[in-house]
Amino acid sequence: MEKEDREYLRQFRGTMVPFLFVLGIFGFLSYRVTRPVMAPILWASLLSAFSYPLFCWLHRKIFRCRNRNAAAFLNTCVVVLVLVLPTVFMGSVLVREGVYLYGIVTDYLAANPSINLHLGDYLPEWLVRQNAALDEYVISLQNSLRHGARWGASYIGTISRDLLGNTFSIIYQIVFAVVATFFLTRDGHIVLQYLKDITPLGEEERELFFARAKKLLRSIVYGVIFTAGIQAFLGTLGWSYFNLPAPLIFGALMFVLAMIPIVGTSLVLLPGAAYLFLTGHHIQGVVLAVYSLVAVSSIESFVRPVFISEGSQIHALIIIIGIVGGLAAWGVLGLFLGPLVVSLFIFFMDGYRRIETIRRGKNL
Question: What is the pTM of this model?
């Protein structure tokens, strides 16, 4: 067998350049073919990875390790009922609220050409008397608020209308993602082994790489995403309790901001509290501000350590770069893939650093 392997490698070296050329051509063509469905495939990969423990339990306990098709089908049904259908429902609600919020803001700006904050009513008299430039700052703030409200409403309205116009495409991608989830769940171990075989690393580094990827993915999902979900849920409850507009829209915004360290849900809740205070609801504004700082923001300190062990902590800068850059590059999918991609890139950089250190004869 070793002689056959050596002969195969000898023949391959003689045809390496044509082989790589043909491989590059078919790789490019395959990319063109799979590009329209790349997002559903990535979503299916995430869904199958998250639900794989359930599949293993079903395959082992219910089907006695005999019928992988039935176990994968049942697992996919659970994923659809628990994750896909609620997400589609929430998405439709967010679209409707986005259109509704756009109408509210535009109607208000049309009916109120100027926004008068009357900050002097809430500032000490000595500060109002001594600060001669206060009026200019107030006017500038009013203009900024007006432009910001118009831009935000227009942006949300545009996204909502685009989603409504692409309903068929969205349904198609969801169906494709569900079908791909079934096959990736059933044959995920084959795909994973194939990726291990083609990864250009040594045996030890290869196992470490995939172990780290698995740990990072769990940390991102259960530590970052789940914690942000709890904070966004509590923040949305507070937002709805005080009858602030479009709670689901701002709840979704709180969900994204809660995953970014230091920023958090307060970036949404505190302006909401300020709005209540400036519109005469002083007690409600103070209560919402206290609720934001004490009840919502402190959740991170208690919940996240439960889901992330010390050995799998992700550096805060990696989370910020991964989430912000991932959102810009891949949309919602980037919330999961962004930190993972950046973390694994750093892993490869560490491996390269180790090789260079050994090459130069330095001690690690």
Answer: 0.67
